[in-house]
Design the sequence.
């Protein structure tokens, strides 16, 4: 079996590629990072180190790589032969891979009528639907029914914390032991793809919301409050009692939304929250706050990890979720100069104010009670920052 995987980064090598290789696929990574592509081609293997109390090494074999900028035709050829296509490139990169994917899928129609599943493994709701819409924007009307017949775009939720890597061997990836890959069955054509450890479900919505509004919500808040307190890593941030308690408070708020919405058992959800807090604190992993905080404009999105649960909490309970609001205010103070979105966000705030930023990026009406609460919290944090 052959899998073509776009994105040989942290999640690509540390989770999706490794699981596919362990499931018996030959994995061809497609990336634009020359060094990583060259090394994968040369070594055809790399190491995943599962970091817990002990370090367990997993050799990943039967892999190779292609550079999509310089080896376009080869990528297209591999797509025509693949049994699975996956991505882990980042939500903002999906439009950039759509053209080559569309071309590969078009050519495949002429040589291979086997159905193919395409799974975008990105931190977002409906990632594969979004990729599909970009691909469909590139093909002719006549091809669309054929694409619908042969290509199943499957939405999924991926959960494993893989920090930025720095090793003598640049291919090595240190990962946490936990992983969860939940894939929606809707849109499967023919048989379920064979992937060891993946969990196939009829309806992804509860799973993706549980993951995005717990793991990602808590992680994001720890990162923004950590950055605010000039702390370097998530592990150090979680040792700060105030941050840990703010994270827990926010997770109880997003948890209240999820429990009410999906009728879950409250104490089971509380155990899930506590397990996630322990994952953030894993002393064998060192995860920079600026990595987890990256792309604050995306993270301020209406359906993303902070505004999504905050709006739902307000709508369901008619109250301000103070923990989430503090996290959002801290996001608005994230002024890391190496992050393009942080720079753009700061420019918007300086030029037009917090209300305008929340209107533009989070689609919150300026008179929404959440906006007033976020603005007050933002002013409070800004004042404390000056006095610190
Ligand atoms: N790192 C983590 O713990 C987790 C990440 N994710 C999601 O996985 C996705 C990837 O994240 P990471 O692996 O952390 O990022 P990363 O930055 O380590 O990897 C992204 C890879 O995509 C490559 N890339 C960029 N543009 C490309 C293009 N046009 N064609 C092909 N490859 C291209 C980059 O060179 C890089 O190797 C994101 O959507 C993220 O939200 C989801 C769960 C956990
Ligand atoms: O990848 P994003 O969406 O920028 O979020 C940052 C981090 O969130 C996590 O998925 C978990 O919270 C990470 O490990 C991830 O990379």
Sequence:
């Amino acid at each position: 079996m052959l899998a073509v995987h776009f994105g040989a980064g942290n999640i690509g090598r540390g989770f999706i590629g490794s699981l596919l290789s362990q499931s018996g696929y030959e994995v061809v990574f497609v990336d634009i990072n020359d060094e990583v592509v060259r090394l994968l081609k040369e070594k055809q293997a790399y190491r995943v180190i599962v970091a817990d109390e002990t370090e367990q090494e997993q050799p990943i074999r039967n892999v190779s790589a292609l550079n999509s900028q310089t080896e376009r035709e080869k990528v297209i050829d591999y797509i025509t032969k693949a049994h699975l296509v996956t991505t882990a490139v980042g939500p903002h990169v999906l439009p950039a891979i759509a053209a080559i994917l569309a071309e590969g899928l078009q050519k495949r129609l002429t040589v291979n009528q086997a159905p193919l599943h395409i799974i975008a493994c990105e931190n977002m709701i409906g990632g594969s639907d979004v990729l599909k819409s970009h691909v469909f924007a590139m093909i002719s009307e006549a091809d669309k029914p054929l694409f619908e017949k042969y290509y199943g775009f499957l939405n999924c939720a991926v959960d494993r914390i893989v920090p930025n890597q720095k090793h003598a061997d640049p291919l090595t990836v240190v990962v946490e032991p936990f992983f969860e890959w939940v894939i929606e069955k809707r849109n499967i054509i023919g048989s379920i793809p064979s992937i060891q450890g993946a969990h196939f479900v009829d309806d992804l919505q509860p799973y993706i919301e549980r993951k995005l509004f717990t793991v990602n919500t808590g992680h994001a808040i720890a990162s923004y409050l950590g950055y605010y307190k000039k702390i370097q890593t998530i592990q150090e941030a979680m040792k700060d009692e105030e941050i840990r308690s703010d994270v827990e408070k926010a997770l109880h708020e997003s948890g209240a939304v999820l429990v009410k919405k999906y009728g879950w058992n409250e104490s089971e959800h509380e155990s899930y929250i506590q397990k996630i807090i322990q994952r953030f604190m894993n002393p064998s992993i060192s995860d920079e706050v600026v990595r987890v905080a990256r792309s604050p404009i995306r993270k301020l999105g209406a359906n993303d990890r902070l505004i999504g649960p905050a709006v739902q909490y307000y709508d369901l309970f008619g109250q301000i979720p103070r923990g989430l609001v503090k996290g959002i205010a801290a996001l608005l103070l994230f002024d890391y100069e190496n992050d393009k979105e942080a720079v753009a966000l700061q420019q918007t705030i300086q030029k037009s104010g917090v209300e305008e930023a929340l209107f533009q990026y989070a689609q919150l009406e300026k008179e929404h009670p959440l906006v007033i609460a976020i603005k007050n919290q933002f002013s409070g944090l800004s004042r404390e920052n000056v006095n610190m």
The chain has 17 helices and twelve strands. The chain has a mean pLDDT of 97. The chain has two domains: 2-203, 206-387. The pocket of 6-O-phosphono-beta-D-fructofuranose (ligand 2) is lined by residues 123, 161, 215-216, 219, 292, 294-295 (CB under 6 Å).
